[in-house]
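for the writeup, i need someone to sanity check this before i put it in the appendix. the sequnce is what the collaborator sent (i think, or maybe the updated version? ugh). structure was predicted straight from it, no edits. if anything looks off just tell me and ill rerun, i have time this weekend
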Amino acid sequence: MLRIQQLNLEIPRFQTEEEYDNYQKRQLEKKILKLLKISSKDLKSFSIIRRSLDARKKPTLFYSYIVDVEVSNEVQLLQKNKLKNVSAIDTAEYHFPELPFKGTSPKSSRPVIIGLGPAGLFCGYYLAKQGLNPIILERGKPVEQRLKDVEDFWNSGVLNTESNVQFGEGGAGTFSDGKLNTLVKDKYGRNKEVLKVFVENGAPEKIIYDQKPHIGTDVLIDVVRNIRNKMLSLGAEIHYETKMTDILQNGGIITGVKTNDGRMFPTNTVVLAIGHSARDTFRMCHERNIPMEPKSFAVGFRVEHPQELINIQQYGENYPDCLPTAAYKVTAKSDNGRGVYSFCMCPGGYVVNASSEEGHLAINGMSYSKRDGKNANSAIIISVNPEDFSGQGPLSGVEFQRQIEKKAYEIGNGKIPIQYYKDFKGSPEHNGTIPQGFTPSIKGNYQFADVNQILPTQLNSSFIQGMEHFHKIIPGFADDYALVSGIESRTSSPLRILRDESGQSTSLKGLYPCGEGAGYAGGITSAAMDGLYVAERIVMNHNSID
C-alpha cells in the first residue's frame, strides 16, 4: 500500500456539497494517476485517510488530502520513481482481544455497566460481541423518550432531573454538535474503530477522513439507537430509569451494585461510565472510600455571532456554497496566567439549557447535521484549578460548579441569562460589525440579565482579555452586540476516579472507572475510545484469570 501526502484540490465555486463529493473522486483519481505515472488499469483502489480545509490563502481555497493507494507493481514503481510525498506503508487494522470462549456467561460474572453514554455504549457493545452479556443500568430514558423530555423542558421550563440534556441514553454529547474529533493520540487504532462503528450505524462515511468530523445531534440520536439495538441482539440487557445507589464489596473486591428500586445486581465487574454530571454518584463513591481527586477544568460563557460573519472571516467574500459552515478555534493567555479558549464550537447552532439539577442552571451548545442555523456559538472558557475551589477534598470542584450554576439560575430567574458584550464589559469599543437587532438562537427560555455577576471578577477579566485578543484574529468577535450567555460549567469532569494499569480502581478490584465522568476523556469520541479501552482490559483480565 502507498500513502500519498499533501494531495491538494482547489475548491470550485458555486457547487453543492454533493457535487463537490463527485468532483472530489474524479479529480483525486486523475491526480493519483498523474503523480504515480500509471494508467487507470494499474490503479486497483484508493481511499481518503484525511481531508483538511486550507483557507490560509483566501480567496483561493483548497482541500489537502492524505490518500492510501493500492497499485500494481508497487515495489517496482517506487524503485523506478523518486516520488515526493509518496511512501510505502503497512496498514494495520484494530483488533479487539478475543476470549477463549463464546456464549452465555454465568449471571454472577456478567459485567454491569453504569451509564449508557458513549463510554458505556462502546464498552457494552464490545463486551456483548465477546459473549459476556453485559447488563447496563441507565438512570435516564431511551434516547427517543429522552428527546421528548428535553424538548418539553425547553418549551415549558419544567425540568425532569433524570431525563435531560445530561442524563439518558447517549449521554450529554447527544445534545451537542455531534463533534467526533479528538486530541487523544491513537497508536492503537481505537479512534478509527469508533468512527467505523459510527459509519456502520448510520453516520456519513466522510467522518472517517474529515479533519473535524461531526454528525449533528439529529444523526447522533439515530446512531445511538442503532448501536443499542445491535448490542441487545448480541445478548446485552439494558435497564432504563435505573440508578445505581450503592456499590457492594467484600474485602476490597466488588460483589455487586444496588439500585434506586431496591434491586441487587451481583457481579464481580462494574464499569463506572457515569458521565461528568452524576454528582450524587460521585458523592456515594466518595462515601464508599473510592479513591478520587479534584482536577482542573474550565468554565465560561457561550458567545454568539452571526454565522455569516464567521463564514466571511474564515473563507472570504463569495466563498463556494459547497464549503461546510465555518468553524473557528481560538486560544489566548490572560495576564493572570489563565488559559482562555473556545470550546465545543457550534457552527449554525443553538445555545441550549443543559440543566440537570433544580435551582441550578447550566448551558451547552448544539448543532444539527446541516448546521444551518443563523448563528454561530462557542463556549469561551477560562481554566480553573483546585486552588480556585472554596472547599477541600475531591468534591470541591463539584461544589464550585454548583455555586456558579445557582448564581446563573438566580440571575436569570430560572431562564438562561444573556447579555450584550458591550454591557458585559461595561465599555463599548467595537460597534458596527454586528447589527443592534442581533438576536439569540437558544433552545429554552432566556432573558437579558447581568451575566457578568456569575463568575468571580478575575475570571471575568480573563474572559474579556480573551475576547479582545480573539477580535484581532477574527474581526467582529468582540463586537458590542455579540451575545454572551451563561453559565458553561460542564466542560469536563471536575474530578478523577483513580485507576491502575489494569483499568481498575486503585482500591476496589473489579471496579473500572471509565469515560468522561471518571476523568479519562473529553468528548464523544474520546469517551467511546475509553469505553473500548476498558472493554479490552476486562477481557484481558478475564483471560489472565482463566
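The first helix runs from residue 17 to 36. The chain is about 30% helix and 25% strand.
thx in advance!!
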